[in-house]
Structure formats: structure tokens, C-alpha cells
Predict the structure.
Amino acid sequence: MATIGTFTASDNGYIGFIKTLTLNIKARFVASEKDNDKAPDFRIFAGTTEFGAAWKKTARETEREYLSVKLDDPSFPAPIYASLVKVEGDEGFTLIWSRRNGD
């Protein structure tokens, strides 16, 4: 697992930064209207460019809520999957990446 971003809550989502060896961007999670059960709860933007989506989830073991995040762009070799989780004892949120099994 690796922390690849830090965020704070905003009026209609979250705002923060994503930093990896190849990314260093300001990003916004903007709440979206769901037109079906599988539609994302948030759209993710860097400036005006949409490059991801996030879905509300609940962890089975702890029942903590988090966002399941998928980031993708033509410049990426593959999508980036991560989780946006609340930082305990803080008002912030952390974007955590871990390699999926089989990758």
C-alpha cells in the first residue's frame, strides 16, 4: 500500500493532490447525479479534464465508509485503482493505492 494523495472535504466532494513518481496534480472529486446503481458517486477532475470516478463503499470487516477510486487517462499504461479513506483523528482523507492481486 502507498499513499498517493491527500484530500479535504469540500462543498460538493473533495479537493487535494495526487502525487506519484509520474503524477503531481491538483484533483477534485465532484459529486455526480446517479442515473443507475452502477454509476459513480463522484467524477474526478484535474482542471477541466475528467480522468476518473469513485464509488461509495463500506468495508466488510470494519464497516468504515470509503471511496473506491479508478483513475484513467490515455497517458497511463493501465488504470490506477485506489481507495479514499478518512484519516483517523483528522479532518483529512488519504488516497491509498495497492497493487491488485494478479498484477
Notes: Strands lie at 2-10, 13-19, 24-31, 42-46, 49-58, 65-71, 80-86, 92-97. The chain has no helices and eight strands. The chain has a mean pLDDT of 93. The radius of gyration is 13 Å.
